[in-house]
Design goal:
By secondary structure, this protein is an alpha/beta fold. The protein is built from eleven helices and eleven strands. It is globular and about 60 Å long.
Length: 321
């Protein structure tokens, strides 16, 4: 049992990033024909592609629903980068529902959100998220949150199921050792003296901060689980604001160089050979069917917030989820 697990057989409904949008998820599941226990009259199976939490109004409710469907045996799920952040107690934008230190800044940016304050509830959330694999596959399809990169997939196959946090931490420790040799932390401190403002302040465009860039690239080059959950990355020509933060690296369009025969599905916007199709009604996306993949329906959990983000995003590779 590894971090790459078998994908269920038969027709699938694959749901992308949910980010705490419980009502949209419930509407979508009903729209697709599933009952409250996740059963479908045509024996379809729900597959969730991670990023259940953060930024939306009810992250605890989303996790609870996904967990119930997965544990009932009627759905499968993988973890995304936002689940990894939670497991590593690394508070990021939109995580105020779980981390006290984010409450003030997130309340100013997002509508009212349900918080997980009960100790048992928090422990249950962490245990479930850490039990999830990072990839799913079968002969005719692969599912990943950010990037199906063969060398890093091979490393994840050797890691036992349930070890996502421990393994991620281990690779981050290796990255930290390299960062120390490169004096990245010292250089970042020097850059903060030059640019003392918050990188979450979208009104203040920073100069290009090379050490901040090197910090992210160092992790991406060393940590295979970061690649699978965040994507392949490279230095960007200039800072850009995405995911409520100024960034100095952008995601590489790895799918352009994917040459294997097995189709893949990733995160919120990608499938091959299925082209992305925007939703035609409300939070629902039309199924995308292609020859040779007639047993699968690809669907998105779509919200007004994501539609707005896509309309204004400079490129898919620069979207932060």
């Amino acid at each position: 049992m590894s971090l790459i697990q078998p994908l269920p057989p038969g027709p699938l409904d694959i749901v992308g990033d949910i980010h705490g949008e419980l009502s949209a998820l419930q509407d979508l599941v009903r729209h697709l024909g599933y009952d409250e226990d996740g059963r479908h009259p045509q024996s379809r199976t729900l597959v969730f592609v991670g990023d259940f939490v953060d930024r939306g109004p009810d992250s605890p409710g989303v996790v609870s629903l996904v967990q119930r469907l997965v544990e009932s045996g009627h759905a499968s799920a993988i973890a995304g980068n936002h689940e990894i952040n939670l497991l590593r107690h690394d508070p990021k934008d939109g995580a105020g529902w779980f981390f006290e230190e984010r409450v003030a800044s997130d309340t100013a940016k997002y509508s009212q959100f349900v918080r997980a304050t009960n100790t048992l509830q928090r422990a249950r959330i962490e245990a479930f998220l850490n039990s999830l694999p990072l990839g799913l596959e079968r002969e005719d399809l692969r599912v990943i949150h950010a990037a199906w990169h063969a060398p890093d997939i091979a490393k994840a196959r050797a890691m036992p199921l349930g070890s996502a946090r421990a393994e991620y931490d281990r690779w981050e420790q290796q990255a930290a050792q390299v960062a120390a040799q490169l004096r990245i932390a010292d250089r970042m401190a020097e850059e903060k003296n030059i640019w003392p403002h918050s990188l979450e302040d979208g009104e203040r465009c920073p100069p290009f901060l090379q050490a901040h860039c090197d910090n992210e690239l160092n992790k991406a080059l060393i940590n295979p689980l970061k690649v699978l959950t965040c994507g392949l990355e490279r230095q960007t020509p200039e800072p850009f604001f995405a995911g409520n933060k100024w960034r100095f690296v952008e995601r590489v369009a790895w799918w352009n160089n994917y040459s294997e025969a097995t189709p893949w599905w990733w995160g919120i916007t990608g499938a091959r050979p299925c082209p992305h199709k925007p939703p035609t009604k409300g939070c629902f996306a039309a199924s995308a069917l292609t020859p040779g993949m007639a047993s699968m329906a690809m669907c998105f959990a779509w919200t007004t917030r994501w539609a707005r983000a896509l309309r204004h995003a400079p490129s898919v590779a620069r979207m932060r989820t």
